[in-house]
Amino acid sequence: MPIPSSLTLPQTLVLTAFASAIATTSVILSYQALKREHYTEKLKKQVGEDVEVWEQSRAGSGVTSPEERAESRARGEKGKKKWEEGEFDEGLIREQLTRNYNFLGEESMALVRKSYVVVVGCGGVGSWCALMLLRSGIGRLLLIDFDMTTLSSLNRHASATLEDVGTPKVIAMQKHLQSIAPWARIEVKVGLWKKGQGESWLEGADWVVDAIDNIDTKVDLLTHCYKTGIKVFSSMGAGAKRDPTRVQIADISNTYEDPLARSVRRRLRLNGVPSGIPVVYSTEIPSTKLLPLPESEFQQGNITHLQPFDDFRIRILPVLGPLPAIFGLNISLYILLSLSNKPLIDQLEIKNRSKLYKSLERGLMEREQKIKKSLTQDKNSITHEDVGFVFEEIYHGRSTIPPRIILPKTFCIRWDGKEDVKEDNIVFMGLKDVEIHEKECLREGRSLEDVWGKEVVDYVEGKREEIRRVLNCRRG
Question: Over the stretch 299-324, which tens digit does the pLDDT of each residue have?
Fold first, then answer.
């Protein structure tokens, strides 16, 4: 930089020092930039070498990075490694199943891992059943379903995501299950199981899971399995239910209150299958019914085009997602214990409380006999099943009289002495209350409100209306 000749010596020295500082700073900054660039390139090279070494070290381990998984999904799972039996690291498998090994033991788990289960119907019930069977160590699964994943099915399906909408349910499940247990053999059939066509799909199965919605197909499948000696577990109706405490496992011959179970039971008897098929069902009386079709569908003419198949229902049954999941989990646990040679043989079947219901009915009739001073007991106008229905479904196994607790000893008695004994005219009390009711209401004729108060009378009248409403629905 040229220095003007008019500057004094001190000014010239200051200006020269300033210029030198600028030049020095520029050199230092340039050096630091070059140094950073050098280290950056060196770091990139080192990271690349480390990644390459890491990838080589984990080759064949069965573990993939998030990026690889995303890329694999984008390619539609093409090129994904298929693990042959015995090829996957056994230590990893045992670690993943360690809680099951702890519970069931070595011999039982060996049986489980060699097992083959066919799941027919992979909706809300079947998907959860298949998922937990796989997580429990089942070595081979065949998933059968004709249906596609829809947005509306995401509220209850075990594995389907938004990405799966529009794809077959079994394909969506296969992809998900293989990501959980890549060593397991997951096979699929995109199709409808039908009598005369699907029997070969069941060959070699240790258990078959029936999670079919259509009653005709369901009965055909159950009949075939029963008559050919294939173990089969059937799911009854999970739709229109909301009470998880009413879900239980029982033999098909020992079910009640479930409309689907009633129809299946009747048709199976006609096919020569009276019992011997375990089912999961709910004793809850359905709180909702099939949704009506929009008027616009009727205006378009013939509505059969809405059916996936000729014999399938058109209208929709409302369903809360947790209920079919609970059904599926019940099935998976029952089958798991059976396959491990530790079968569930002491499950409580609610209908086996028939001894209680018979005792209540017998006490009711004996009391009626004493009140009427009859030498012979009147022919029963009410059965123990009727008593059990009112006791369980209407009064929930509790006393009619406040505080409406579960009694250690329950008695059944006529409510209104002016009316006959029938379903809507019986109540349940403890010993002290039943003696008061018999003496003051039935023998002395005092009014119900004088003895028990308006709140109790209104409560019972509400229950009586509920009984009549339910009976009308059951009788069509």
Answer: 444 444 334 344 444 446 789 999 99
Residue 438: alpha-carbon gap to chain centroid:
46
Give the residues across from 189 on adjacent strands. 144
Residues 382, 388, 392, 393, CA torsion sign:
negative
Q: Which residues pair with 414 in a beta bridge?
A: 426
Q: Does domain 90-287+319-348 have CATH number 3.20.20.70?
A: no
Whole-structure pTM value:
0.65
Residue 354's CB: how many other CB atoms inside 10 A?
Answer: 15
Nearest to 392 by CA among 416, 422, 363, 357: 357
Token reading at 457: 């009378």
Quick one: which of 365, 407, 417 has its CA closest to 386?
A: 365
Q: Report the Cα 472 to chain-centroid distance in Å.
A: 30
* 403 contacts 442 by C-beta, under 8 angstroms: no
- d(CA 378, CA 424) in angstroms, rounded, equals 19
Q: What is the pLDDT of residues 328-379, one digit of tens each?
A: 999 999 999 999 999 987 666 665 577 889 999 999 999 999 988 754 445 5
